[in-house]
Protein 1
Amino acid sequence: MSQTKLPAIAQGTKRRSRIRRLGLRDLPLDAVDLAKYLIGKTLVHDLPKVRLSGRIVETEAYLEGDAAAHSFRGMTPRNRSLFLERGHAYVYFCYGAHYMLNVAAGAAGIGTGVLIRAVEPIEGIEQMKRWRHTDRLLDLARGPGRVAAAFKIGKPLDGENLCGDGNLWLGSAAKPAGPIGESVRIGITKDAHRVLRFYERENPFVSGPKRLNA
DNA sequence: AGTGCGATTGACT
DNA sequence: GTCAATCGCACTA
């Protein structure tokens, strides 16, 4: 009796169970804690024919009373998803060309969140290459606009609950996160001195200038 | 109704 | 390294 030949479906089940969906209770309440917590966790987008997934390797926190946060001047039609309970997606369109994915933080009514700035691709790499119009693995999801493009994230996913049973979700870490680095946030002009950017050190999929990634 | 600008990217000197 | 593209939205009037 051979044990080596498992049915394909059983192998698939076993492989998939390495990553479990994160629930609301898994997410720290505080935006800074959440930004650090998400490093190393998995971002998954299940499309009809393919699963896109990757390790989150760079994040930024946006807080209450933070002039750089979109919520600074209160709720508007654009930023309302940022005020949802933690774990919801806030997808924002910027520079006339790029979408960016945030994970809302805090309780409902609090406009804080975490920007996903870079992801190390794991599954669906061929599709990501096609959509991103590049074969360079390192460039697929290095930068917030690229993350959204590689993972096919656009306005329709704004407000999605990433801790529910939807197609876009957060998963546990496939591999534990390495040492976490900190720096100021990239590309902002207000409250620019605050150290609210977090990344996995020595990971080549992290964006940003070298001086910030020491 | 008009204006300014942004949590960026890709192309180019 | 520099720089233009591009457009939805918030703000002013």
Protein 2
Amino acid sequence: MPELPEVETVARQLGPELEGREIERLEVLDERWSRPVPPERLAAAVSGRTIIGLGRRGKYLLLGLDGGQTLVMHLRMTGNLVLVEGEEKLDPSEGMRLYEGERSASERFMRARFELDDGRQVWFTDPRRFGEAFLIDDDQLPTRFAAIGVEPLSPDFTPEELGAQAQGRTAPLKSFLLDQARIAGVGNIYADEALFRARLHPLSPAGSMKPEHHLALRDAVVDALEAGLTHGGASIDDYRDGRGEKGEMQNEFLVHTREGEPCPACGGPIARIVVSGRSTYFCPSRQTRLRKRPRRRPSRRAT
DNA sequence: CGCGCAACCTGTCTGC
DNA sequence: TGCAGACAGGTTGCGC
């Protein structure tokens, strides 16, 4: 689920709500969440701390705490971070099957719970249990994220930077966009959407782009991510924002999950292929493959 | 070194 | 109805 627009949406919503609040108690219910640190140890380290703010780096959420430390969280595939005002009000995993005696599916999937000093709670829910969290000294953050690539919504994300990252890459453009070490925060949804906007074929080698393509792809990545932000993120299935609400971006997809539907630009059918294990949607007639060398004009036989 | 893929998990949906 | 298989927003480690 959560790619840059979804994580950013949560950070923007919850940041102002959490800033200045004290975490009276953190309860860690799943040892996988804090692994390899024992749940009770992470809980004890975070309990009693005051929140400075909530930020984002790539797809990571950064909960700044007093004392010069940050709780880094990653939602992975199905994680949600939701502010809960009344226990019964919100169900971040609404739509999931309820078993007997359960008030909400969220409770079953709760991995951690923050109790704030104003009586509200923040739940980290995650059915697939891929989500994780760790506490880190602030001065270690640059080192920890040194291998994460450029932030695509920052001024540093220029066509030249994108070109430098793509230089010499033989991997398909789809894989290139998913590589967090090059561009941070793009995932399966927005990679498809960006390639469609740039009219680039997902299987074209990243290194085959020319400067005009660097510019087109830079703009397309930015536009796709901003569309996601504008519509509050994409809720294909599990994603909920910081208030437990679905996003609307899934209704705005140009190609992602739209196999067989008409291309919004030409009307031809959207195709689905698998690229390095990920479902990939594109318009075969508009997203043409780049050639390593210009095709020779067919020579006419002299008559 | 770069790249593709299996593995990590749990749940839902589809087809036989 | 039951059941096997495919598939799901991400990341990591391993083999080639």
